[in-house]
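REQUEST FORM: STRUCTURE PREDICTION
Request ID: SP-0412
Submitted by: Lab K.M.
Chain count: 1
Length (residues): 150
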Amino acid sequence: YNIATPLVAESLNVEQIASWCVMVQREVADRFFAEPSTKAYGSVSVLVQLATERTGFHPVSREVFRPRPNVDSALVAFRRTAPGASLPVKRIVEGAFGHRRKTLANSLALSGLFTRARAVEALAAIGRDAAVRAEALAPPEFVALAGALA
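STATUS: Completed
RESULT:
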């Protein structure tokens, strides 16, 4: 379970993989397809949703395992709908969520990717306020932001 999130995130760039069915900790499964502006929404949500759509979800109780773990699990299935995020988009997404308590412009500046002024300008270009936080943007808006920053 410790490597599930990075493994799934990296596999999104392997175009030969057309579908996934993974058993992960329930909280991780919830993150994969979390909605913007929710606590579970983060960089993995954006990256997974840019490339896939969920085709199945089945909660798995901790009671079915021996020995019993301290977490619930879920079997989640999803299929590829697009190539994985490009490297510039991936860097922006990771930088955007690197400082969750900061505005998106400040997070990008703190990550060293862009100046705050450049990030504010790009946010305005996609119709977003300078005070917006990363968790408010939908996955396609990160692609648009990457385009505005290019």
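NOTES: The radius of gyration is 17 Å.
Reviewed by: T.R.
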